[in-house]
Fold:
Amino acid sequence: MATVSLEKLVKRYGSLDVVHGIDLEVADREFIALVGPSGCGKSTTLRMIAGLEPVSAGNIKIGGRVINDLPPRARNLAMVFQSYALYPHMTVRENMGFSLKIAGQKPEDIAPQVDEAARTLDLTHLLDRRPSQLSGGQRQRVAMGRAIVRNPDVFLFDEPLSNLDAKLRTQMRVEIKKLHAKVQSTVIYVTHDQVEAMTLADRIVIMRDGYIEQVGTPEDVFQRPNSKFVAGFIGSPPMNLKDADIADGQVVFANGDRLPLPARFRDRVTAGQKVTFGLRPDDLYPAGHGIHSGEDADVHRQDLRVILTEPLGNETLVFSDYAGAEWVGRMLNPRRLAPGEALSFCFDLSQAHLFDRESGRTLRG
Amino acid sequence: MKGWRPPAPFLLLLPAILVLAAVVIIPLILSLYSSFTPFRLTQPASLFTLIGFRNYVRILTDIEFWTAFGRTVLLLTVALNVEMLLGLGLAMLVEKATRGQRLLRTIMMFPMMFSPILVGFQFKFMFNDNIGLVNNALQSLGLTDQAIPWLIDGSLAFFAILVAEVWSSTSVFAILILAGLLAMPKEPIEAARVDGCTPWQTFRYVTWPFIMPFAYIAMTIRSLDVARAYDIVKIMTDGGPAKRTELLWTLISRTAYADARMGLANAMAYVAILLSILFTVYFFRKLSAARTQIAAEW
Structure:
């Protein structure tokens, strides 16, 4: 059983706190992604779990056992680094078998395990090369192979795909997902790329400035963000977030433009309350080009002018002006649009979010 | 009809060729030639008597020469190894320093700033059996009540020379190895720690292979230095007592200038240079092998 628990975990450099007492329970065989902008403390947290950074306060438990003061070698973890961190003077075979050699296993016992991992990762023909003779994607696979061979309790990934180009990243993402399905280990995966987090993880931990903003499944954090920060961080392009006031049962923007108050927030706000209104691009679309038919009661129609379009083939992102700000919508099944063209847009208010403007917390129940 | 004109590249290189010929090539050929003559400085005419390989044959059977040769190799081997170990230790300590590292690096280079002649005089004073610092210290500490004859006993004198050499040149190793440590990426070390390595194993399997090329660069530089080791020995013992610290170059200079047998000395010098070349080639081979191993881009 390789559960990982963080209890009031703190990391302090001098008088500067970079991780502020976070709590997290990772279940056995769970794939957890720590995600957040740079400097949010996600890598530091991972390095504390690995034992590469001392814990300033709080506890880290693996399988119920406190491991705060154990050296990395005694924690039975495997870590994949952003820079791969392969041993440059060793061949792929030696790199992958290194931890077993250190553990005192015999060469004849090591070979089959390395071969097995190499087969899984399609590295068999590269076993006698050195890291310098490999491409980025191959190095990445060797780094994963080195981790797999150890058969660890927990896999730690520190932005493993950041140094790869976009195409390879997509490919490796799939590989990692397959790998997790196969090896069935607990995985803690740090990334700043919300797409990686969404596609890979069972649960996502969104961090900001050393605090955990929200923990939840990809659906949770996407559909029910707890805060303005999470709403803006998850999703691409990001959610439209515009400041507004509540007046006369409506959402009133700074320039006087107004939208009906979404039904599910009717009892949760009071007149005069300062809020931030949020609507995903998916829920703002030219009539007839949305996910939904646009006939639901909670859909508000509004004629807007197109400022700019970003055609992506299967869909087009449409930028337009409303309430004195720029909004981005998503047009499925697209047709060619000319800038300046007037379109009837649907605001699907059943999917809208309201956040308290001061605290940034959601006003949903 | 136009006269022949030398090609332009040759003309452009001519000044350099002339200078090189004047200061390197002609002296080299002259000295090689003189090693086949019984040339004595006191009898200039002897430069024109060719005696074939007689000087070389004489050296090959000269026990005094081979003793000096062997002693030089011994000094080289011991000094390089000791300097390497001390330099490695120093570099690793300095690398750990979080504050004042630049200051430490500068201080570490101090011994390199002194002329070997001055180092020789300083250590000659320190190892003096009557007024020297070393004996004084040993006696004050009650470790001995005798005046240890550091520069008079043959093997003690060799040891004293070794200490002086090591003191003056450990920093060469320390500086170069430190450069290697600072250039080394930190991730493989962290990976090794997670992979289960103890600090010693991390050093043995990850750090050391990486800094090995830097150690070999230092080795190559220093092997040339020690093979021409002359000044410190000249000052401290002048090859004595009774030639028991005689190294190749003290022997050669004595043969050339004190005995005035320039022809024979030149022959010795060519054999000595062979030794230098062998050491250099050896370390260069090691260096390029180590570089390939860590896939260095230089």
